[in-house]
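Minutes, project check-in

Agenda point 3 was the complex the collaborators sent over. CS summarized: two entities, 690 residues total, and the question is how they sit relative to each other. Sequences were read into the notes so everyone works from the same version.
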Amino acid sequence: MSHPTPQAAAVLTDRDNTGDDPRSRAPLITGTNDFTSVTDIVASIAERKPTLYWWIAFGGAATLCGFFFSLLGYLVLTGIGIWGNNQPVAWAFDIINFVFWIGIGHAGTLISAVLFLFRQNWRTSINRFAEAMTIFAVCCAGIFPALHVGRPWLAYWLFPIPNQMAMWAQYRSPLLWDVFAVSTYASVSLFFWYAGMVPDFATLRDRAKSRIGQFAYGVVSLGWNGSARHWHRFEKAYLILCGLCTPLVFSVHSVVSFDFATAQLPGWHTTIFPPYFVAGAIYGGFAMVLTLAIPCREWFGMKDLITMRHIQNMARVMLATGLMVCYAYAMEFFVAWYSGSHFEHSLFLNRPFGNHRWGFWAMFLLNCSGPQLLWFKWARNNLWVIMACAMCVNAGMWFERYVIIATSLSRDALPSSWAQFSPTWVDLSLLTGSFGLFFTLFLLFLKFLPTIAIAEVKTVLPQSHAHGHAEEAH
Amino acid sequence: MSAPHSPHGSPSAGGCPFAAGACASNTAKVYGQIAEFDNVDDILSAANKARKAGYTKIDAHTPFPVHGIDGALGIKPTILPWICLCMGLVGMTTGILLTTYCMADWIPHPSWLVENFKGYRFLISGKPMLSIPAYIPPIFELTIMFSAYTAVFGMFLLNRLPTLSHPLFSSARFRRATQDRFFLAIEAEDAQFEAKQTQAFLQGMHGVLAVETILD
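CS then shared the predicted structure for the full assembly.
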């Protein structure tokens, strides 16, 4: 079967798996799917010619991506003076964008690793997707600090490489911890993603009609043949990786928060940052997964695999982490008051009423108000409402980092060094352009790679479990 | 799918799956025989039967990990977790040595060591030379990095991947092993393998769709 459309039409019988009746377990995959149809639905996306929508989206994203790289060229040739950064706001859009993108990546690892350890089998339909999002978000994130060093060709100084200056990296600095955390996170996420895709590449290899497809998928599938011994080691490696990625993902955003928390600056020097940043990262990440998953399941005929229940579960996670974020906002204000520190007092008054107050109110309204709609069942049943909430969070989490970084830096403890920050057109264009890079990579992923973990989804079908008469058969 | 395959080649090569020209030589080396199934119960029962019949060089090829197949085939637990643990400890040691070596000069180094490889006393912000709490993030990340890389690459190496060519890939039928069919393979190297008997044995399995001889 080359097209999923007749299949999709045939399985409309049982689409609603959102019930909470404890007497019957809700199916994770709806419709009357079996091993063949699951393979067909996912593989046919990579096999057929891209749709017009894909070309339009890809054209737009690739143009934006080209613009982004041209700007990077301009930036490297000119110097970071074309940014709006100043003293004391030496960290601005570059670090805001870095924290924003790296935070988005966290939902991918949370879905693939943490939910696996908790035996949340619904993750199988969305983990590939979310892992891809992680990799691409980390790509976008990594670019900004590399540029912020000013001379990116010397960025290798960040690594402990013996050099002509006989100088070592400074291991007591949270910025160096960041180098270790982010490079470990990026590479481990990439290998995890790739290793998970190998059996699915083998599926695409075995179905490929064209020589190019057979060769390309043949090479990347490494000769996977589905041997039970291979699966045995594969599953063990997968479990180990999940066990390792769980502390890793929490460490990464904790370390990112140390960049701020170990500084003396009012508004940064606080112990709540690591858990607050991790919750915020998951919040923003799930919003981005929803932003990507809702249109994709519509356009690529994957409604039986990414079901309404998946969307609702993600909405619930988003609501829960959103509440943690709101709690952290409240606690920051409480501690600022309770600490009795004059500088903390004035900074936290400055956030809602001072020079960057619009940033604070954008953050507060987008992160704390809009998504509260998800308390209601009708809202969780309406894709437009969920999508709107996700967009609120996408924007709100960017403003959160803006508030943390720009407000605190522009009003430090010494009034004589205060200065206002305003972004230049390069700042704004680089932020916009980084979405071009992200969506270009994501659209290529949608077209050429197995977008849903085919082998894993098969394991949650009822047919994948023996019925117990295997022994009686002989 | 086709009915159980009947042999029409020479007895020594078992059934030839291809047109006469493709199996020109009667002395072609046989890799083994595969039996095709379309559900989990049948492959599990077939694997159990083959193991109980005394075959040892058996394997199942399935589109996803089938629960219970390890016991049915007699697969022993992999040593991968222990390798990962060891490499994690190596990573942790690397982290401890790297941070303490670079940030102080108390780890002795030979006099001939060139200058840019030497650690030195790096006193900054009044922290002690041996600031273990501040060194924990790099040490932790290196532990994770070493063990996670080992889990991925160790898994592939123990599986002897990449191996882009495999005798089983010559079978058109076997392409569905990564999609919706389940195969039991008995290798010709098995002490108990005997072309005709093994073929008859596989054809007697419950729910078998086809049996095919694979040439090496």
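Noted in discussion: Residues 168 and 214 of chain B are 6 Å apart (CA to CA).
Follow-up: revisit at the next meeting once the mutant set is ready.
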